COBRA-like protein
Amino acid sequence: MDPHGRIDVKWDVMSWTPDGYVAVVTMTNMQTYRHIESPGWTLGWRWAKKEVIWSVLGAQASDQGDCSTFKQNLPHSCKKNPSIIDLLPNAPFNQQFSQCCKGGVLASQGQDPGAAVSSFQISVGRSGTSKKTISLPQDFYLLGSGPGYTCTAAAVVSPSAFYLGDGRRRSQALMTWSLTCSYSQTIVSKNPSCCVSMSSFYSTQITPCPSCSCGCQQGQANCVKKEDNKISSVVEKSKAERKMVQCTEHMCPIKVHWHVKNNYKTHWRVKLTVTNFRYRTNYTKWTLAAHHPSLRSLANVSSFLYKPLMVYGASNDTGMFYGIDGVNAVLLEAGSNGNVQSEILLQKDNNSSFSLEHGWPFPWRIYFNGDECAMPSPDTYPSLPSSARFSALTGFGSIKGGLQILVFIILVGIF
């Protein structure tokens, strides 16, 4: 549902130095609903020659490396394959750079475009000092608070243009190269990281998340039972406490529940609940993307913010839900407060096509933080009881259903 989702990385050489150049590196998260959360991004590469990093503003190399060949004025990093991380928000002012110092957190483009960009300035030495002698870094990689991203090779592109001062003077970079990094969920894990359960007002049946949706191998060794009265101590003693989840049948850290709550004459209502089963982990700036044909006629959303996703031209049957800052933008760790809820009201734009049968009210796909959730099998969806078919339709304003039951009563009276 995000066919153009990627992270763009651009290097703009702004000036030449006696032994290298000064460049501005900019990362832009073009992904609609996938963000990079704490502990943030890490950008790495391999130098083509014997380059060193003299200094960095707005970021820092995680390892200085062996700089013993330098007698004085030690470089910031002498690593052949340096890795750069963002500075924290409270970094000293003289170390900051524009759009830096967010702890590596990058918002998604659909949620907050202004916070979807991060940049830093880097001074490179022992490299070429012109377009003809410079060599591009190789083997780029990006960690977005974990693995999953694959980056292309850097390629020289048209120099970036800039407008300075009053906006009447145009300048450009001396040289620019760029690359893109794309995410693959299967690189991270062969199992999903979330699942979907369903229920409806017209059925006592609840469709749970599929068993072992997120994998059950060695599950009991990596989960905490809810009835354990010493959950905190159990988690604290765990060697992988950030990965500890509550023991469930599905073994997923996130469960999304879709409940068809009401059916009115012109509208129908859904209650949406997202539950966190992971201990010691909060989800900040979470996003939930859904694919359902009725989202094109969504009338109201309570407690959440909503943005339609125009994935394929004019079709807007997909949308993104996310929390309100200061209210529920953070999905807390497992426990009594580890969930967020909303109710959405959808309009029946065409009563003749609306139906409660065959699983129509339920979503086709759900994504949490960009990862696709495991869906139940369609044959397990809450079914409409045969005795309630007419009442479920006519009782809430369906003209077609009313005519059907009228004919049924007449026939009963005749016979």
